[in-house]
Amino acid sequence: MSTRAAPLLEASDSSYKLRKAKDRLIRGLCVAFTLLALVPLFSVLYYLTARGIGGVNLAFFTELPRPVGETGGGMANSIVGSAQLVGLACLFGIPPGLLAGIYLAESGKGGLAKVIRFTADVLAGVPSITVGVFVYSLLVLTLGRFSMLAGAVALAVLMVPTVTRTTEELMRLVPEQLREAGLGLGLPRWRVTLKITLRTALPGIATGIMLAVARVAGETAPLLFTAFSNRFWNDGIDQPVSSLPVQIYTYAVSPFEDWHQQAWAAAFVLVVFILILNITARLLVRHRVKGR
Amino acid sequence: MTRHTDREYARELDLLRERVLLMGSKVEAMVGDAMQAFHERDTQLARATLRADHEVDQLELEIDERCLKLLARRQPVASDLRFITTSLKLVTDLERVGDLATNICERTLELSLEPPVAIDPRLPRMAQLAQEMLADALNSFVQSDAQRARAVVERDALVDAAYAETFPALTQRMVTEPDAAQRLLSVGRYLERVADHATNIAEMVVFMVEGKDVRHTFHAVRPMDS
Amino acid sequence: MNLEPAEPVVTAPTPKVKAPSAPGGAEEPSAPEVKLSAEDLRARFGTTQVLKGISMPIEARTVTAVIGPSGCGKSTFVRCLNRMHEVAPGAVVEGRVLLDGQDIYGAQVDPVLVRRHIGMVFQKPNPFPTLSIQDNVLAGLRLNGTRVPNPAEVVERRLRQVALWDEVKDGLDRSGTSLSGGQQQRLCIARSLALEPEVLLMDEPCSALDPIATARVEELIHELRADYTIVIVTHNMQQAARVADTTAFFYMGELVEYDQTDVIFTRPKQRKTEDYITGRFG
């Protein structure tokens, strides 16, 4: 036995080297393509920063846009408008998304659940401009004007499927044993769902919602048909409102060099906002987990 | 009975059974040889039997060891537990029977130095009864036969009665031939004890088979000392 | 509570007889108090019959072990005892379970309340990960909306009861999941005890624990026996032999034998029991 074992150990030397080489090759390819994938990402960030940061000043955050020909001015109304739109969208979109997710996770086995799940999946894949057109016919045409309400509804519709599926997935990740523990302690089912399952899944759900918010914050297409744009401060929920993405679009396609500069600055600010939103979400989760 | 799922365990139990049987047959043979040597004043056979006791002692140690290992490593329960604990106790009785056989041989050697004496006719009868009881007890163990074991227990009374008869006759001879009478009386007592040990073994077999402890319950059935 | 039904004792395959008090003892042979009693209990998942009519009285303040091969219905049985079985989709229970003579499957009975009287400890320790050690102990009370007037006292009392106090008293704010497996299981027992149940069901409580942690839990079971009626499911026969007063052997959804633990492990009456506990099973 030992006489055979020794040569076996040594004979593997060449094949061992070959295996090692293959391993290095595959590993190298993985790293190379990862870097390749990161190139566009970082070049976008770099380009935005390089082109946009020059246009960012105090006036950009505090002043209204100036008419064509006048230099200076800012995008204060678009920044506030975007915040309002996203805030309202959260108000409309998160509760139904969250509740639907809870329903799917906790009792989602019947036909109704299948329909909801399928619908959510389809909705998540619908191009955002379609949602814009839908809300246009639903609200803009019936109310007779573009409005913040319509814009917020369009964004909310985009949020719902993401929130629903995130909630469902994360609630499902909560081990069955915890639900059993709750039921075994004589808690009614609804308390188990709220105080144990949802509570355990909450950090993850919060991150998911933050990511959904970040996504809709950058949406342009659905807003073109709904919230439209406004050169001045928004006048009310039933009035058109300016938003950063739409403003970027408008300025970018304009023939004026001055507006192009403003568009770069706005794009830069938008990306920074989304970045902050993402990082906050992650920090929040990490904090929660550690603190508990 | 169905086989054990763990065949190694089954083998260990089988081996234990074999060793106990081997020890039983050796002890049986020792008693037979001792009585033959006693009757025929065969000092050579008596000495051979004395030497055989060593093997029996070794078997006792080995079986003890096997039982302890099985208890520690297998945590036996139910019939296995009863079998192993029975074996553990059974070998003590067997070893004592072996010792009694050597005692008979010692008395035989002592008697062989003196002129032949008249052997009380009740002694061979006792010997025969005790040997039969021992054989039956061991057979009941092998075959897990509780009925046969119970029969052994009941026969103990006969040996006791025979010994009770021998006693006054031999005490009378004490006056004329004190040394011989003393030795014959001892042999009688040894045989009575062999029967007692056979009874113990039989009672253990009943427990092993039925899970019922019948020790100390037969006294009422025994005829009162006659 | 009063308990009339004498018939369940008869329907059990081997009528449970309290071990006679020490021979010659002067003790009055008082009638054993039946705490919990299954009567012709049947359970199924959809069309799969898991329990085929179990009748089994369980005496107050004893430890009863339920043993049997996987799939014999032992887990389902204890889950029926506090109405946890019906929680699973498609699960149906028929028959009766009497707690102090009252049917917990009665039309007027709220399963949620049943579970507060009959606590349960599960196979895998399952403290709530979002709650601290002390909040875990109080979870059953607080999550039910019960105001706990002196929480610190309850926490200390229950943690002492499960012999965990000295190990965790300096870190009551830490997460329940930061404890070792054995500690977590004792925390879960403390959490159940905080609801002051009369019966404690344990579904293989030590199967995820190492031998020392197991010994701790078993020691705890011995202590709890004075005040609680405990039913423990275990696939570890030695554990049943160590902790239980009475042992029930289940096979294919039926109660094969139910007797004093020492009888089961030294001289079982049924061939099936004998074969199972000695390891002669197919």
Name a few traits of the molecule:
heterotrimer; A: 292 residues; mainly alpha; MetI-like fold; 0% strand; C: 282 residues; alpha/beta; Rossmann fold; 6-stranded mixed sheet; 4-stranded antiparallel sheet; 24% strand; disordered N terminus
Explain what you see.
Chain A has 292 residues and is an all-alpha fold. Helices cover 79% and strands 0% of the residues of chain A. Chain A is flat and about 75 Å long. The termini of chain A are far apart. The model of chain A has no long low-confidence stretch (mean pLDDT 86). Chain B has 226 residues and is mostly helical. Chain B is elongated and about 65 Å long. Chain C has 282 residues and is α/β, with parallel strands linked by helices. Chain C has a domain at 7-16 and 31-125 and 199-278: P-loop containing nucleotide triphosphate hydrolases (Rossmann fold). In chain C, the strands form two sheets. Chain C has a six-stranded mixed sheet with strand order 6-7-8-3-9-10, with helices on both faces. Chain C has a four-stranded antiparallel sheet with strand order 2-1-4-5. In chain C, β4 and β5 form a beta hairpin. Chains in contact: A-C, B-C. Chains A and C meet through α8 and α9 of A and α3, β6 and α7 of C.
